Records
---
Amino acid sequence: MTHILLTMKDTAKNTVANWPVKAIFAASVLLLSSIAMSSAVSAERSPDVTLGKALHEKNCMKCHDNRQYTRPNRIIHTFEDLHARVEFCDTASNAGFSSDNLDDVVEYLNVNFYKFMK
Ligand code: HEC
């Protein structure tokens, strides 16, 4: 009988003592997952191909035209190469693209000429 009472007391004590820990844990999980979701949403800007086309026409036709992208001996063979080349040519042409605009131009070139899998 004494034994049972002790066990019940212990259980009750544990439950009460654990409650705040559980609540804090649950609150942290909620907080962390909402932070993770909001940063995922802000990182999710999809490239704008129409804007990429306009930026390309304005800044990128001074030294070469579109034939450069489909010539048989073209120098770009992967999506990463393409991104690096657009960055390089952005500097060469002083276009001054933001990283979002670089993505727009890369997407425009990929959709229309290179068609690499990402
Ligand atoms: C200052 C001159 C110049 C300007 C302006 C320029 N490029 Fe280039 N670009 C080059 C040259 C030169 C090559 C070829 C390099 C080679 O054949 O080795 C090239 C090649 C490329 C290629 C690779 C073609 C292939 O072989 O697959 C891409 C993609 C490219 N340019 C994108 C751009 C973009 C996007 C812009 C606008 C931001 C731009 N270029 C503006 C000089 C320029």
---
Amino acid sequence: MEKKILAVLFMCFLLVFFMSSASAGFWDFFKKIFGFDGKISIDDCGEFSYTAPVAVTASSSTLPGYPPENAIDGKTGMPWLGINDNKYPKWIYFDLGEEKCVNEVSIAMFPTHTPLKMDIQTSNNPEEIWENVVSDWDYDTEHQSNFHKQAFDVVKARYVRVYQTEGTSPFGSIGEIRITAADYLS
Ligand SMILES: [Ca+2]
């Protein structure tokens, strides 16, 4: 009798497994079941503060004078500009140097380059895997060159990407970013 119950439970598991695999993809299902989605407890982290990235990489760059490094030069009025081709997505990502606890970004956009729609993503493997921690952020003209925050559940990640999916300017742009992070203690 117990074997029959176990067999039924196993069949149920297989059914759920294949349905989930088909609808959400195997990797999403795997992460959901085993908790490998990068999310951690805030108790595993030290004190949070603005953390300066050690390197910046962008999908493209336009005129000399507007390189990706402008996004972290401390000047909100000096932006990174992507290539002037009206095509999206355009993205820029920041290397924190090592895996950190990350739970917030604060962005100032260059005036006239808003509105923009974007995702905030994190990764430990920037060539292949990015996870959205903020989706479809509508950065409107109200904020412009003032810093505007987006907080999210703490994740363990080395890289943070601003992935711009729609914009009214042809460039893609970011005036300045501040990333709030802490040391991972465990
Ligand atoms: Ca800047």
